[in-house]
Amino acid sequence: MKLEIFRTLWGNRSPWPQVFDELRGAGFDGIEARLPEADAERSRFARILREQAVPYICVLFTSTPVLPRQSDTPAMHLADLARKLALAGELEPRFINLLAGNDRWSLAEQVDFFGAALELGERAGLLLSFETHRARSLYSPWVTLELIRQLPALRFTSDISHWVVTCERLLDDPADDLTPFVERVHHIQARVGYDQGPQVPHPGAPEYADALAFHQRHWESIWNSQQRRGFAGTTLTPEFGPDGYLHHLPFTDVPVADLWQLNQWMARTERHHFHRFLGH
User: Fold this and answer.
1) Cβ-based neighbour number of residue 148 at 10 Å
2) Burial of 159 by CB count in 10 Å (0-12 exposed, 13-18 middle, 19+ buried)?
3) Which of 151, 175, 182, 189 has the smallest C-beta neighbourhood within 10 Å, fewest atoms?
4) Rounded to the nearest 5°, which phi and psi values hold at 202?
5) What are phi and psi of 195, to 5 degrees?
6) 52 contact partners, CB below 8 Å, separation of at least 6
7) pLDDT tens across 138-180, in order?
8) Which residues are in the Xylose isomerase-like TIM barrel domain (predicted)?
9) What is the reported pLDDT for 255?
10) What is the torsional sign of CA 57, 53, 266, 264?
11) How far apart are CA 280 and CA 274, in angstroms?
12) How many CB atoms sit inside 10 A of residue 111's CB?
């Protein structure tokens, strides 16, 4: 099985030439970025993707990013998804990484919504990988496991750092059996969270060794499952980001680390980790 590592453009402010020079220089294989909804911006992005010839994972949000508008109904989310899938198809993404729904909906509403979303993906000819994320439908492992029981065709992006915060602990108790979820993970977002936050200041810091080890065990369980499922390749995006995720020093508002350096560290570490996993 081959590992492809994607660069997130979340928090990136560099010009396009620099983005791709840095990406290749650091050994990344592609980019993961939000869908440009404006026609001119999307057309320019499509041209850049063709010129650079790099794989692209398209990030979509139903309703508004990142938090959904609370007044939007499931029907409104589905209409928004159908519109955005049509736009995303123009960019020929590898697949769609989708942050969907709202954590406040009832389970019955969630089941109906995800069933309809799967149909929209099939109709558009795009694979939907639903991301685990706070404030969205998949904010909790227990809600997600219940959805799987009713909709086994769901496929997922695992960003387990969100669940660590939601449950306020590393999910390593013997009772925390996430097997049905692991068996359906399509893509990994590699950010290390801890019991009080979705992003440690630095994943290499010794005080967060237990958190890093937990996340790496989870990723290994996904790789094992993907091998059993016959995956020829797997994708991973180091996703340390801004917007309150990156720690800042009090009073000065100085960030404690550089995001690009953090994501490069994560990419190098997980490439080595993956090679060890394969026994190389």
Assistant:
1) 17
2) buried
3) 175
4) -155, 125
5) -65, -20
6) 20
7) 999 999 999 999 999 999 999 999 999 999 999 999 999 999 9
8) 20-190
9) 95
10) negative
11) 9
12) 16
**pLDDT less than 70: residues of the chain:** 280
Which residue type is seen at 150?
Answer: Q
**Tell me, what's the pLDDT at 268?**
98
Copy the structure tokens of residue 168. Answer: 């306020």
d(CA 183, CA 260) in angstroms, rounded, equals 31
**Token digits for 187?**
């893509």
CA distance linking residue 266 with residue 199, whole number of Å: 12
Question: Distance between CA 148 and CA 192 in Å, rounded?
Answer: 25
Helix (H) or strand (E) holding 84: helix 74-88
Residue 256's Cβ-count burial label (10 Å; 0-12, 13-18, 19+) is exposed
Beta strand pairing call for 233-238 and 156-158: unpaired
What are the backbone angles phi and psi of residue 125, rounded to the nearest 5°? 70, 30
How far apart, in whole angstroms, are the C-alpha atoms of residue 37 and residue 35?
Answer: 6
Cβ of 198: how many Cβ atoms within 10 Å?
Answer: 23
Closest CA to 194 of 174, 175, 213: 213
**pLDDT > 90: percent of the chain:** 99
Contact 154, 115 (CB under 8 A): no
Closest CA to 216 of 272, 176, 143: 272
Q: 142 to each of 25, 95, 226, 238, how far by Cα in Å? A: 40, 25, 22, 25
Q: Please tell me the distance from the alpha carbon of residue 80 to that of residue 19, in angstroms, as a whole number.
A: 30
